[in-house]
Amino acid sequence: MIDLNLIREKPELVRQALADRQMETSSVEQVLQLDEQRRSLIQEVETLKAERNVVSKEIGQMRDPAARQENIDAMRLVGDRISALDEDLRQVQARLDELMANIPNLPDARTPLGVDENENVVIKTVGEIPELDFQPKPHWELGPELGIIDFEQGVKITGSRFYVLSGAGARLQRALIAFMLDLHTRQGYTEKYTPFMVKSDTLVAAGQLPKFYDNLYKDHEEDLWMVPTAEVPLTGLHMDDILDEDSLPRYYTAYTPCFRREKMSAGRDVRGIKRGHQFDKVEMYIFCKPEDSPAAFEKMVADAEQTCAELGFTYRVLQLCTGDLGFGSTITYDIEVWAPGCGEWLEVSSISNVTDFQARRANAKYRPVDGGRARLMHTLNGSGLGMPRTLIAVLENYQQPDGSVVVPEVLQPWMGGTGVIS
RNA sequence: GGAGGGAUGGCCGAGCGGUCUAAGGCGGCUGUCUUGAAAACAGCUGUGGGGUUACACCCACCGGGGGUUCGAAUCCCUCUCCCUCCGCCA
Predict the structure, then answer these.
(1) Distance A378 CA to B16 C1' (A)
(2) How do residues A352-398 score in pLDDT, each as one tens digit?
(3) CA A342, CA A270: separation in Å to the nearest integer?
(4) For A208 and B4, how far is CA from C1' in angstroms?
(5) Closest nucleotide to residue A36 (Cα to C1')?
(6) Please, which residues have CB within 8 angstroms of residue A327's CB and are 6 or more apart in sequence?
(7) Does nucleic acid strand B have an atom less than 7 angstroms from the CB of A49?
(8) Cα A282 from Cα A329, distance rounded (Å)
């Protein structure tokens, strides 16, 4: 959520941001109108409440029964009026909240203008697209041939787009998770193990509800939702907190599965493990002071890049344009790794500075050392990295002409001597 | 799942229809005193909203939500969480 005062004071700025994101701008006018209505209602109802408070206090001390009754009758009418106004106010507030919940964050000045993902900008490419002297196989061939990915069993027990990892395949994914958590720990992040289910308040705080209701899995009887990303529980860690300034920044990393109920288009990404309703991810997350978030963003990008580099991947860094930018983000870099088997760049990470957008919703603040008012923190999130695609990249990049896979050096400590999958 | 007990300001803890404008204590901040510190004494102390150039001032908040009442921390309903015991269980 953005600051309502910003819309009040600089509506043209917000209108421009919406236009840059290829969105309707009419909500700005509606917000302004509702806000005015809201404030006029507040003034009216609070004047009445002040009156009732004063008179009620007097009633308590009155001795004359007639005068007392007269005041009670008068206040009963005032009370009825207050109830009616409170109800009006509730409705106006609800409409305002809904509008505000659907206004995205303002893009950073460095985010390039663009209509859609075709106008994202490649910042840099690291490594070369390898020239192989044999025909590389896609992972959906490699995996079953090596007996480490079983698509039939996934479909059998759960359904379309689910798979089972087996033996060295399962172990390889576990190795990747452990490697990433250990690397991020060295980079200064504190590892967190969080619940994989959260209550709706947490999803609201993280900005997933109400907007992404359709993409979430939910318990039918209780207020428990499967996390769509570790970003959700990590944001929730400090909702309604006021942290000490000198305890910032806080760097967190967490492994969680991610559950997403998105509608998959039938013909797209159907092969392999690239896209599914369940996937694993190691996430990085930072809470920091507003003035520190640009530097924190650079750090997080560098940390994700290092993860790719240590795995020996050829990767490129893209900057998302305004038309492709996520709802809460001001600036986002995606990292894509080259997968020679399927012959495409795979998005394995997305790093965003959401400034105070999530913090405002989550009510996540810090107390300055000078003891002044609590201020909203800034938050940043980034994948480090997304699992199935990283697994794809390992299999496809490290495959040998004979169909075996040589596991990268950095992962071997977790592979139990299995340096080669064959 | 069953029975009982709880939830009050940064923390402890009183209050159980009307000066609650939430006692008292601890902690914190400021000041007086002091060469300095401690002690003592005095004052201050949260969040959100409205309002103001800025103040003043006003409203709301005693776990969440709803209700009764002229008036609710206090009474009623409901939910959540914590504690004790029983049952079940990896």
Answers:
(1) 43
(2) 999 999 999 898 988 887 777 788 999 999 998 999 999 999 999 99
(3) 12
(4) 39
(5) B50
(6) A104, A105, A207, A211
(7) yes
(8) 19
